[in-house]
Amino acid sequence: MKLIIFLNFLFLSQITLPQQSKLSRSVNNISEYIASDHFNQIRKNYGDLIATDSIFIYAIKITNYNYGDALLSLMLATVPYREVPIQIPLIKVVVNYPLVSADEKTFLKKNENLPAHIFLDSPSDKFGDKDKLAHFFGSAFLSYESNIFDLGKLIGYFVEAFEESFKVQSSIDTRDLDVNYYGRLFGNLLKENQDLLPSQIFLLRSVRYLRVVL
């Protein structure tokens, strides 16, 4: 979640109002797609991996095949929270920082429909790994947009400094860090092969998980 909050600060503060409007439209459209009965039927018929691929393909299409825009929109659209508590430096006041999201009705239905079981080690409860999608797409965005060096890793250092300054109210999740790695891998591979799908990276992670536990 630290990564997602940081990206909200870093990128949304740098773009113009027309760009924000374009991004908001993409986030709303993706959220509405995930909230739709059509998407829910895909989940029921084909499972969460194929459902995640369908979200990715939809995002690519509505952003006119701009993969950077699609990945950023996907990160924001798949966050299962509308706001997060952060502590402002010096005055030490905790405020709820709003994240870009759809209207409340769409947001709630979207959260209900988000793919939850995308890895072999995903928690078996209803929520599962719904919060990992935003980590995956956010990390993929950073790596896809970095042409000279590994921006994903660099941002990781800035995130730690950001957390120290703003006291982001979230605990460290080693699985978040692991998913961030696979997100960066996805973003890097997309530069060479734009036919790549998220499910292929999810399956790779699951295979590696099996090698560790068996």
Number of H- or I-type helical stretches: 10
Kindly name the structural category: mainly alpha
Order of helices and strands: HHHHHEEHHHHH
Largest sheet: 2 strands, antiparallel
State the domain count.
1
In percent, how helical is the residue content?
Answer: 55-70%
Identify the overall geometry. globular
Q: Beta-strand level of the residues, as a percent range?
A: under 5%
Terminal CA distance reads 30 Å
Q: Give the overall pLDDT as a whole number.
A: 81
DSSP, total strands: 2
Radius of gyration: 17 Å
- Strand order, sheet with most strands: 1-2
User: What low-confidence regions span 5 or more consecutive residues with pLDDT below 50?
Assistant: 13-18, 152-169
Q: Describe it for me?
A:
With 214 residues, the protein is mainly α. It has one domain (2-213). It has ten helices and two strands. It has helices at 2-12, 17-35, 37-46, 48-62, 67-78, 104-113, 132-145, 151-166, 174-192, 198-213; strands at 83-87, 94-98. A two-stranded antiparallel sheet has the order 1-2. Strand 1 (83-87) and strand 2 form a beta hairpin. It is globular and about 50 Å long. It starts with a helix and ends with a helix. Mean pLDDT is 81; it is low at 13-18 and 152-169.
